[in-house]
Amino acid sequence: MQVGNQGPKAEKVEDRSPDEWDVQARNLIKGVMATRGFRFKTLAARLEALGYPISEKALGLRVNRGSFNLGYALLMLRAMGETELSIKHIKLGASWVEASKLMGYTGRDIIVDDADE
Q1: What would the mean pLDDT of 70-77 be, rounded to a whole number?
Q2: Environment class of residue 1 by beta-carbon count within 10 Å: exposed (0-12), middle (13-18) or buried (19+)?
Q3: Cα separation of 94 and 101, whole Å?
Q4: What three-state secondary structure class fits 64?
C-alpha cells in the first residue's frame, strides 16, 4: 500500500563522502556569487548588514573550503538576493560554472574572477 506522494526515487548516496557534498555546497554558493556579480567583500558587507559580521578573508576561506552548514548557506543565498532554491541542480562532480548553468544562468550571466576560485 502506498501512502501519499512519495515522489521520484532518491539517488543512491551511501557511497558519497561528506566532502563531496561540501564541494557541491561550495559550488552552489560560488555559482550564485558569479552569476550575481558578488565578490567576497560585497557578500561580507551584506552579511554584516544582516547582523552577521565576517571579514572578507574569513568568508573567502569558509566558502572555498565549503565549511559551512545549511543555515549559513541559506543566509548567504538570502544576502545575495536568492529567493528560491531547488536541489535538483546539485550534481556531484559539477564545477561551480556547471552548477550555475544547471541553475538556468547562461554563460553571459556568469562572471568569472580567477582570484575567487
Answers
A1: 94
A2: exposed
A3: 10
A4: helix
CB 34 within 8 A of CB 97: yes
Question: In sequence order, what are the residues at sequence separation of 6 or more whose Cβ sits closer than 8 angstroms to the Cβ of residue 71?
Answer: none
Q: How far is CA 20 from CA 14, 33, 93, 98, 105, in A?
A: 12, 20, 8, 15, 23
* The pLDDT value given to residue 54: 97
Quickly list DSSP for 14-55.
TT--HHHHHHHHHHHHHHHHHHHT--HHHHHHHHHHTT----
The answer to whether the beta carbons of residues 111 and 43 sit under 8 Å apart is no
72 pLDDT higher than 90: yes
**pLDDT level of residue 107 (50, 70, 90 thresholds):** very low
Q: What is d(CA 104, CA 109) in angstroms, rounded to the nearest whole number?
A: 10
Region of 93 on the Ramachandran plot (φ > 0 left; ψ -120 to 50 alpha; else beta): left
Question: Cα–Cα distances in Å, from 105 out to 15, 16, 35, 36, 50?
Answer: 30, 27, 7, 10, 26
